[in-house]
């Protein structure tokens, strides 16, 4: 009897150990997710597509095809996610907020009197670059003046802001940091249509290089930049400024915002069925297109 009791106790200990170490599944997450994983939003956000719908920030999981309202912020116009997944920079009514991605707490950072757009958090997570009007006017014609949209940077700790293009008479838009923080890509209208440029953020002279016609650009890594125009997306090596791939896009493609998932999956704003924009997926191997999100815009991946 004593030997039988020892045997049963041993079996119980083994079963308890095995089951106590198994992953626990939760609603809205794939099998294999654990309690600790759920509590860490940085893991939860990874490889999820974030987008704006009805002024709030939503998540789309490409694996499960599930949509989740991530942050109820109301009236969000543009946003970006920090590289550590802890912060979201969001613009609402010309006010810049920093949202805690874990608690959803909003912290007001600054306000401008005119339009503000494209907040992009630096790779070091302590600065935000954005677009807003200049503080000086430039001559447009002999009879009129205008304020142009410049590239600004604000320090999240000191709230000090600097106009990086203070002497420029041109409009700028669609700023994007390279993952290593060395470059900022942006579009500018300089009399020959919108074209994409690179600004060196390490060189104090902030030299600018012209690349290609287009509006939106997306960094695939430190050396590779994708540039969208009305008919295609072109992929460039920023070291040589040479194009090495072109993706022909279908009618309805909006070049204002797109996001790659690996080499062969593309999510983009689509005007085919909805002038207010949907988000579609394009399989770059098969060429198959499918609408995945209705009334959504500004797709981006938390990487």
Question: How large a portion of the residues is in β-strands, by DSSP E?
Answer: over 45%
Mean pLDDT: 82
What is the CATH superfamily?
A: TolB, C-terminal domain
Radius of gyration: 23 Å
Helix and strand string, N-terminal first? HHHEEEEEEEEEEEEEEEEEEEEEEEEEE
Structural class estimated from helices and strands: mainly beta
Instruction: Extract low-pLDDT stretches.
Output: 1-41
- Output the number of helix runs: 3
Structurally, how many domains make up the residues? 1
Look at the structure and give the CATH class.
Answer: Mainly Beta
> Helical proportion?
under 10%
- Which CATH architecture? 6 Propeller
Q: How far from one another are the termini?
A: 59 Å
**Could you give a short account of the major beta sheet?**
4 strands, antiparallel
């Amino acid at each position: 009897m004593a030997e039988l009791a020892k045997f049963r106790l041993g079996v119980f200990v083994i079963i308890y150990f095995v089951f106590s170490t198994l992953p626990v599944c939760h609603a809205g997450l794939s099998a294999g997710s654990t309690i600790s994983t759920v509590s860490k939003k940085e893991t939860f956000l990874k490889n999820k597509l974030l987008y704006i719908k009805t002024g709030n920030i939503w998540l789309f999981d490409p694996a499960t095809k599930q949509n989740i309202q991530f942050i109820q912020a109301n009236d969000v116009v543009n946003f970006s996610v920090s590289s550590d997944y802890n912060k979201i920079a969001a613009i609402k009514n010309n006010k810049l907020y920093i949202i805690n991605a874990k608690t959803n707490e909003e912290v007001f950072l600054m306000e401008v009197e005119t339009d503000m757009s494209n907040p992009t958090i630096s790779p070091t997570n302590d600065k935000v670059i954005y677009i807003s009007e200049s503080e000086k006017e430039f001559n447009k014609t002999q009879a009129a003046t205008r304020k142009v949209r410049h590239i600004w940077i604000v320090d999240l700790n000191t709230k000090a802001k600097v106009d990086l293009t203070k002497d420029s008479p041109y409009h700028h838009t669609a700023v994007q940091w390279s993952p290593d923080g060395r470059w900022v890509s942006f579009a500018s209208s300089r009399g020959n249509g919108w074209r994409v440029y690179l600004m060196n953020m390490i060189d104090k002279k902030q030299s600018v290089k012209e690349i290609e016609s287009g509006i939106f650009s997306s960094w695939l890594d430190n050396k590779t930049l994708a540039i969208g125009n009305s008919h295609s997306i072109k992929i460039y090596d920023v070291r040589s400024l040479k194009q090495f791939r072109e993706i022909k896009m279908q009618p309805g493609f909006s070049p204002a915002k797109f996001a790659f998932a690996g080499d062969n999956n593309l999510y983009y704003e689509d005007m085919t069925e909805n002038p207010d924009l949907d988000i579609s997926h394009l399989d770059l191997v098969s060429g198959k297109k499918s609408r995945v999100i209705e009334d959504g815009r500004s797709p981006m991946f938390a990487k």
